[in-house]
Design a protein that fits this description.
The protein has 3 helices and 28 strands. The chain is mainly β. Helices cover 5% and strands 44% of the residues.
Length: 408
């Protein structure tokens, strides 16, 4: 049966046939199987699902699809069940996809499934829409040298495919043209799970930031009630306008300012506090806010430093600053070098839980529940101007899924 694809007539009868099974994902078997109708409904709605492509009844490729996130991952396996390639595609913002990352593994033929990814020769190519291409070759996997090269090369691009029209996706991963049909029966292991084995790359989003600075608001945490308040922490002088959030004890360890800069000046800083209702002497800092104007924020974005790309973030991941001393701070990048020892004078910030240096060149606070990694959010007003920075101490998970959150 001939069909026309981009003006070229192709004889479908010459193609190999591949059967496909639908599910929530693959993890040592088909997890939460779906009917073809249910999978097609999810595809049309952009909701995540997985298609397992078979050759002679065995798993050949796994397609993790989530069009609402403009995301696709194609993983291919050999006859021994070993993963031999993985291609991730992301949205361009123009309605199509581009190849973000391609990885392949090759030999040795006698390596087992678990040993193979560590000893096989590896190549990994990463693309950016700007045309930057990074190519890494590891001829002996974990056991040998690593060779990296960089070049300018536009990434391969594909349209977002319709349901079951995955020939180009599979072709990008190295397959010859195939006809894809629904599997009537299969012998793959089937499992049920309360959560899917994979999540689309939806980075952490800010939640309830304004509430953290609302006096009198109450939140329950692990069965205990806390009352929220906001306190002025003084003012911060930013001579260069390049803000840095960090552990004050780590200012000499390659701390980097945020990419978004602000006009040099001196700006007010406030901290949000959560006080236990049944223990009024026990409070924790929920967030620290640096205000550049009094205009409300209508949009929030994650603050990034040089070299950080949101496309590298997975489900509920974020870029943040690390804390090992139980303290965090704001400081201007031009002031950081001469303040590397100021943390020694802060006495742990027990009470009060925040402090500003006399010269207003550093504002420090105790970091939520303690050590960890914390994101900073940038608020923008209706004109697109920066109105504030908020270092979020992640004091209150929003739901049970927050236990999955991760950072980079």
């Amino acid at each position: 049966m001939p069909v026309s694809v981009v003006g070229v007539v192709i004889d479908v009868g010459r193609w190999s046939r591949r059967e496909v099974v639908y599910c929530d994902g693959w993890a040592d078997g088909v997890v939460n199987p779906l009917t073809a109708t249910a999978a097609q409904t999810r595809d049309a709605a952009g909701e995540p699902y997985t298609a397992v492509v078979l050759i002679d009844g065995r798993r050949h490729a796994v397609l993790d699809l989530s069009w609402a996130d403009e995301y696709c991952r194609v993983s291919r396996f050999d006859a021994a069940g070993r993963q031999v390639s993985c291609h991730e595609l992301r949205g361009t913002g123009s309605g199509d996809l581009f190849l973000r990352r391609a990885a392949t593994w090759d030999g040795p033929p006698d390596a087992g499934v678990h040993e193979f990814p560590h000893v096989a020769a590896r190549t990994c190519t990463t693309y950016r829409l700007s045309g930057e291409r990074t190519h890494v070759v590891e001829p002996r996997g974990d056991l040998g040298a690593r060779h990296e090269s960089r070049s300018i090369q536009p990434p391969p691009r594909l349209p977002i495919p319709g349901f079951r029209r995955w020939r180009e996706l599979l072709g990008l991963a190295g397959d010859a043209p195939v006809e894809i049909v629904d599997a009537v029966h299969h012998a793959l292991p089937v499992r049920t799970a309360t959560r899917p084995p994979w999540r689309p790359p939806r980075p952490l989003r800010p939640h309830g930031l304004e509430t953290l600075f609302t006096p009198g608001a109450r939140i329950e945490h692990h069965g205990r009630r806390l009352r929220l308040s906001a306190r002025s922490a003084g003012r911060l002088h930013l001579p260069s306008g390049r803000l840095l959030a960090a552990d004050p004890s780590s200012l000499d360890l390659d701390a980097k300012p945020f990419d978004v800069t602000v006009p040099p000046g001196t700006y007010p800083v406030s901290v949000g506090l959560a006080t236990f209702v049944d223990d009024p002497g026990h409070s924790r800092v929920t967030a620290a806010r640096l205000d550049l104007s009094d205009r409300p924020a209508v949009r929030w974005e994650l603050a990034l430093c040089d070299g950080q790309d949101p496309l590298d973030l997975g489900y509920r991941q974020f870029f943040g600053f690390g804390v090992d001393s139980g303290m965090a701070c704001y400081v201007d990048a031009d002031s950081a070098d001469r303040l590397v020892d100021v943390w020694r004078t802060l006495d742990g910030l027990v009470e009060p839980r925040y402090r500003t240096t006399d010269a207003e060149d550093l504002v420090a606070w105790s970091s939520g529940w303690g050590d960890g990694v914390y994101p900073t959010w940038i608020g923008y007003d209706t004109s697109g101007a920066v109105t504030c920075f908020i270092a979020d101490m992640l004091l209150f998970p929003t739901d049970s899924e927050d236990e999955d959150e991760d950072e980079d």
